[in-house]
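2024-03-11 09:14:02 INFO receiving multi-entity request
2024-03-11 09:14:02 INFO entity count = two
2024-03-11 09:14:03 INFO echoing inputs for audit
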Amino acid sequence: MKISTIRELLDAQVICCEDGLARHVYSACGSDMMSDVLAYVKDQAVLLTGLVNSQVIRTAEMMDMNCIVFVRSKMPTPEMTELAKESGIVLLATKKRMYEACGILYSNGLVGNRVKNG
Amino acid sequence: MAEALNFHFIVDGEDFTSAGQASVQVKKNLRQLGLPSEIIRRVSIAMYEGEINMVIHAGGGTADVNVTEDYVEILLKDNGPGIKDVEQAMQEGFSTATDSIRSLGFGAGMGLPNMKRYTDFMKIDSVLGKGTDITMRVNIE
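2024-03-11 09:21:47 INFO inference complete, emitting structure
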């Protein structure tokens, strides 16, 4: 799914890295717990979260994720936006709640992720 | 690579916001070395979890990364309170983190299990009241 499609489906605002809207994501993960996010591995995924601190950006960076959607009207801080710009991670913000946002993306064909068992 | 490369970092235990900076730097360094992206991701996630643990549980510490021909080795050392029961700490979901840590998105009891999940070798040496040393290796195939 194109990141621009995610933006349209979630009626989201683009916070930064608009250049990346044409890129594709192939899986998604929705969580406010970053260690749960780090337990899943997959290239080119989108992270949906209601958590707002710099570790959200670092977690996405570690996972090679190229888009983060902040749900329920949460907005990233300027420091977070700077960190995202350094890594070219597209930041989106939607008014939709986590459950609804995940449901919309899932029902439009963006499936979840498998846990990599050690 | 004829000789091992070493990167040394001091992890500041006072600042949660900057936690993870060493892992970001290691990721950049490993990219410059041209290692496969899967190896880089596994090393950086394992180190990042370790760095976060050092900040939230141990007041900081040091991190050393050695790159050899066969593997990437991560050595984490802290002078924190130590781990009371390592076996218990390795269980997914077990955590001694406070609610304030959880509100920051960590302390789900996944840190140590994730470190094991993403590495090929992991050893924990912990002494109560003295600190914890963790050695992890990711093989370069």
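2024-03-11 09:21:48 INFO post-check: The longest helix of chain B spans residues 37-57.
2024-03-11 09:21:48 INFO post-check: The mean pLDDT of chain B is 94.
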